[in-house]
Amino acid sequence: FNSNTTYLFKNSFHLNLNNNFLRSIASIQPQNFTQLKELYLSSNFIDKIFKNSFNCLTNLERLDLGGNNIK
Fold first, then answer.
1. What values do phi and psi take at 39, rounded to 5?
2. Distance CA 32, CA 43 (A)
3. pLDDT at position 45, please?
4. Which of 18, 26, 13 shows the shortest CA–CA distance to 60?
5. What's the pLDDT tens digit per position in 14-35?
6. Contacts 24+ apart (CB under 8 A), 42-48
7. CB-CB contact of 41 with 65 (8 Å)
8. Which of 30, 40, 38 is CA-nearest to residue 10?
9. At residue 52, what are phi and psi to the nearest 5 degrees?
10. Alpha-carbon distance 61 to 64, whole Å?
11. For residue 58, which of 41, 40, 33 has the smallest C-alpha distance?
């Protein structure tokens, strides 16, 4: 996510990034997604998730990573 993207979603509760050709997930900055409850990342090309990538998402209730090739 870049700074323009995170600004748009700062107060979002649901973020759907399904089918976006994402390849990996790095750490998400907590100040940008403090309210996020649902994160959908299915059907991308994610094969790597870095350690602690989702630790800051303390309100996260649902995470969908289906349809990826995570190792």
1. -130, 120
2. 24
3. 94
4. 13
5. 889 899 998 888 766 666 677 8
6. 42/18, 42/66, 42/67, 42/68, 43/18, 43/19, 43/67, 43/68, 44/17, 44/18, 44/19, 44/20, 44/68, 45/21, 45/69, 46/22, 46/70, 47/23, 47/71, 48/23, 48/24
7. yes
8. 30
9. 70, 20
10. 10
11. 33
Residue 11 to residue 19: CA distance in whole angstroms: 22
User: At residue 12, what is the residue type?
Assistant: S
pLDDT digits over 25-64, tens only? Answer: 876 666 667 788 999 999 999 998 888 888 888 899 999 9
53: left (phi over 0), alpha (psi -120 to 50) or beta: alpha
Side chain identity at 26, as an amino acid letter? A
Whole-angstrom Cα Rg for the chain: 11
